[in-house]
Amino acid sequence: VIISSAQRQAKHSFFWQFVFHAYTTAFTLVNGNGTPKAEKHSLQQKQILLGLGAISYSACVGALPLIFVNRYTLKSSVMQLIVRKLLPAPLFGFTSAFNVAMVRSPEFDNGIEVMDRNGKVVGVSKKAGEKAVMETAVSRAVLFGTTFFLPEVLMYCVQRARFVKKPHALGPVRMFVVMSVLAGMLPVSLSMFPQCGEINRADLEPEILSSTEETEFFYNRGI
């Protein structure tokens, strides 16, 4: 996160964002729901291919503003502010959510297990899978979007108030601020939605409802 947010050259930015998204995509792949088991080998191949595509796409999208600025030599202060300060946060939030949706797409294609309040599996629901993936994508977008946005605001305040007198000390201060924001946002993003998600009876497929009289159902959201 720290290295990705500090790049000023397009090639370096692409490389480090590729590394960043490769890690988060692998984490998503390991910590999904895991219900889809049909044709397990082909399923894993599909997820890996989707993950590689999502990583490459996200790295390109993240580096695109720098490519645009360098290609057309846009050196105005407004363009520099937009590209280096304002764009990274929404881009990282969007690409992080996009990676989750792509890698875990088999969950809303094939569905995930839903359980009653006693933990008994009552069926496999695509709607629950879609809800689980979307909740995780939102939490991931908030985590990394905030982590890339809030340090820029805090560093602006630090520089404006001249709390740091020596310019070469700004680097370590920035690193500390990014680490602090990331550490603070991690539990916030994980607690946005419960790990054991809940879905109402009215939101489930008819074939599941026909086998039980329960009104509330639960599922594993993943991380």
Structure, explained:
Strand 1 and strand 2 form a beta hairpin. The chain starts with a helix and ends with a strand. It is elongated, with a radius of gyration of 21 Å. The strands form 2 sheets. The protein has a two-stranded antiparallel ribbon. A two-stranded antiparallel sheet has the order 3-4. The mean pLDDT is 86. The chain is built from 9 helices and 4 strands, in the order H-H-H-H-H-H-E-E-H-H-E-H-E. The chain has one domain. The chain has 223 residues and is mainly alpha-helical. This is SFXN4 protein. It is a multi-pass membrane protein.
Separate helix tally? 9
Estimated share of beta-strand residues: 5-15%
Run of helices and strands: HHHHHHEEHHEHE
* Rg over CA atoms: 21 Å
Question: How many strand elements?
Answer: 4
Helix/strand-derived category reads mainly alpha
Spatial ordering of strands, largest sheet = 1-2
Provide the number of structural domains. Answer: 1
Ranges where pLDDT stays below 50 over 5 or more residues in a row are none
Mean pLDDT: 86
Distance between the termini: 18 Å
Shape: elongated
As a percent range, the share of helical residues equals: 55-70%
Largest sheet, in brief, is:
2 strands, antiparallel
Task: Tell me briefly what this model is.
Helix 3 runs antiparallel to helix 5 and helix 5 packs antiparallel against helix 7.
Keywords, separated by commas or semicolons:
single chain; 223 residues; mainly alpha; two-stranded antiparallel ribbon; 4 strands
